[in-house]
Every structure is written in C-alpha cells, then in structure tokens.
Amino acid sequence: MKRVLFATLIACTLLCVSCNSHKRVWYLQDATDFATEQIATQGQIRIQPLDRLTIIVNSKDPELAVPFNAATGYTALTPLASASISSSSALQVRTVDEKGYLQMPIIGELKVVGLTRGELSKLIADKIIAGGYINDPTVNVQFVDMKFSVLGEVTHGGNFAITHDKLTIFDALAMAGDMTIFGQRSDVMVYREVDGVRQIEYLDLTSKDIFSSPAFYIRQNDVIYVKPNKYKAQTGEINQNRSFYISLVSTAIAVATLIVTITK
Predict the structure, then answer these.
(1) Which DSSP category does 25 fall into?
(2) Which of 5, 95, 162, 202 lies at a C-alpha separation of 20 to 30 Å from 69?
(3) DSSP string for residues in 195-229
C-alpha cells in the first residue's frame, strides 16, 4: 500500500512539473475567451529619414504623368523620350533625406517623414491637382529594401523584408520560425531608433498587456532579440564544463602514457 501511495505521489509531482514547464512556453497566458483587447493605435509603417521609395504617378492620359515619373526635373520631351521614361518609371527609386524631405519632379520638395504610404499618395495627388497639372492623378507608393532583424532563440534568425503596412511582434516571430522552447517569452527585447535616439522596449509575450506596447507593431530597421531562458544557459554552462573536463582528462591520460613509455 505504501508503495502505491509513494508511486502515486511521484506521478502527481511529475505531472505538476510537466504542466508548469508546458505553460512556460505559452503566449498570452492571461487572455480570456472572447475578450476584446485594446491594441496600440497608429500601427502602420511610417516613413523615416533615409527610407527608399518607388513613386509612380498615373493618369487616364499617360503622357501627362510622364514628367512626374522622371528622374530629374521636367523638360520638353519627345514622344520617344516620353515612352522611354514611362517604361522605366517603375524602376525609379527616391530616397528620403536625413531631414525627412523628398524631392519630386515638378512639385518639388515635400515633407514626408511620419507619413504612411497612403498619406503620401494623397499628398502628392493633391499637389498635382492643386498645380493644375493633372485632374485625375493616381499615385502608387511602395517601400524599397525595408527590413527588420530577429536574433537569439528563434528557429532561424536573420533579416526579413517588410511587405505589409502593419507587422506585429507575433508576425515577426512567425517569419523567424517562432521561438525555440528555450526562448524567454516574458522578456523579449526590441531595439529601435526614433528621431536619432536609440530606444529599447521589453515585451512580455505571456501577458495581454503587450497589445498596448509601442513595440507591439514592428517598424523598419527594428532589431528583435529573444533571450535564452535559464535552462538554455545552464545547458550551455554544463556543456562548457563537460568539454573542459574531457579535455583535462585527455591531457592527463596523454601525459601518463608518455611517462609510462619513458620509464620503460
């Protein structure tokens, strides 16, 4: 009877340990069913200094849009030159300067820092209409070479392209193959630069409070670092010690063998 009780106690203890260990890898542990959580506002990617953009202006009359897609200021163009610029306009990449301004043909300099793609499209279209150049412009703005980085305890870290106007921390981790079981979910670091100032946000992915964090939505050039938990750190320390002792024993055996050989 005592053996049965002892075996039952051990089984219950192992079960509790297993459940607690399992729970450590859960996200949003305090979330409730069907609960509506307030998420951070203004989560769209916004233009920053040195961002690279492609900006294509179109119209029902394509010839009217050609000057706005040119690489330089507008001059009188022959039909052949117009066709050449129109065919290559999709390759035009414009860079926002360090002060947040963008140079556009015809309409000149625009303050674009802090705008979304949609807001910049509207600003350019409004400028074109106000100048009397085109009555029906459509403007397509796309980001070029926009990325973020994920490091640490994830399946495959590295640089990843931003292809959507909104990207959450969960989207970013999913692109990196999710955390490993050794990732510390309660203390994920997001490094970013805002107005020339370096900032670090720490996210607790086990809590629903993450939805109100300014780092819930990822921005261009963010660096996400997933720290190893204490179990991974202990494993690394054990492996290092094991390697040291194996090396020490191997050296001792080699020295002993050499001594025996010499004494013979």
Answers:
(1) T
(2) 162
(3) TTEEEEEEE-TTSGGGGGSTTSB--TT-EEEE-B-
pLDDT of amino acid 77: 41
Q: Is 35 exposed, middle or buried (0-12, 13-18, 19+ CB in 10 A)?
A: exposed
Specify the 3-state DSSP secondary structure of 97. Answer: coil
228: tokens are 């190893």
Give the mean model confidence (pLDDT) for residues 221-245.
70
State the average pLDDT for the chain.
78
pLDDT digits (tens, 9 = 90+) for 219-229: 999 999 999 98
Q: Residue 42: inside a domain, yes or no?
A: no
The predicted model gives 6-19 an average pLDDT of: 48
Task: Indicate the number of domains in the chain.
Answer: 1
Q: Does 112 reside within a domain?
A: yes
Q: Please give the Cα distance from 63 to 86 (Å, whole number).
A: 8
CATH number at residue 61: 3.30.1950.10
Using DSSP bridges, classify how beta strands 147-152 and 223-226 pair: parallel, antiparallel or unpaired.
parallel
**What is the residue range of 84's domain?**
52-144
